[in-house]
Amino acid sequence: MENENAAGSKENGGGPTYGGDYVQYNVLGNVFEVSAKYFPPIQPVGRGAYGIVCCARNSETKEEVAIKKIGSAFDNRIDAKRTLREIKLLCHMDHEN
Description:
This protein is of the alpha+beta class. Helices cover about 20% and strands about 40% of the residues. Pfam families: Pkinase.
């Protein structure tokens, strides 16, 4: 029997990378490469002008987390600054959701 946690799920194209430390998932046509500590399936939450958000569950803490992939974060200076600004703001937030 194949280990679903290490190999990802077949329905969303999961597969191990970097010796099994990371797993790739295809979510709404976007490839997410996340730590293998997140349980499949990786579910889409939404998409916006800058990227797509999915949720996953941490296998160590059982905590549900949101993962955002920004497609063109470093294509130009303005997008890079927006991305950095969002990361800095998120580091200061602590919310139960």
